[in-house]
Please model this.
Amino acid sequence: MIELAPHHKIGLPVENPVILAGGTIGYGEAYHAGLDLAKLGCVVVGPVMRHGTAGSVPPRYGAVDGGMVLDSGLQNRGVGAVLRRFGRSWPGLGCPVIVQIADSQPELVGQVAQRIHEALGVSGIELLLPHHADASLTHRLLRTTVRAGDLPVWAKLPLQRTPELAEAAVAGGASALVVGSPPPGATVRKRGDGTRQAIVGGLHGPGAFAPMLASLLRLAEMDLPGALIACGGIHTLEQARQALAAGAAAVQIDSAVWVEPG
Model:
């Protein structure tokens, strides 16, 4: 067993270090038949926010060397609708379910966290920290989420600011640190009418692996309490092994699932 919430009173033991990252299978309904969820350590569903949002106006992605740039705008249905429509299916997914919260205001995060803590079939919460977060906001967001209930809470850190925010996240009560949110990227995509549109968002794909690994190594050297989880550009078995060797207890897979679900 692999413990992904050490020092937490409940803990979060899993049998496999492979995890599906937030956004990969929606709220648990959007997974390909080639995926056997029961063989995974756990899955992250979401993002979930207090209020629903339509997300970014299409087109939202553009191909780049080494992957793609994606700007989803954190599209989500709002916590009430998510729990009503999808929450009942989570106990039957075959592995532990972690719910990702994406609000950036402590008051809203606390309201969502309370609802998630009370939901059946949830094993933990992943708090997606905003890219603009500083140490003070990080601490407040984590503390608010942890105090809402008894579930273990992971902090998903902005990749370019991982060491800066890690200590504040742990001080706020994070049981694990996820390294991390995709690095920023951009591309210019040609429209059907011949004009061009810039797309600015997160970089997904093998090109994100090396920056993620560098942040993971720096964080491992800090030797903070809690588990480390690697997320970013992991597309091969060798990359997964490198992340584990660098100090991660588990790895989150995202764009590789879209490329080849099996």
Notes: The chain has a mean pLDDT of 93. Helices lie at 79-85, 106-118, 135-147, 162-171, 209-222, 237-245, 255-259. The longest strand covers residues 196-204.
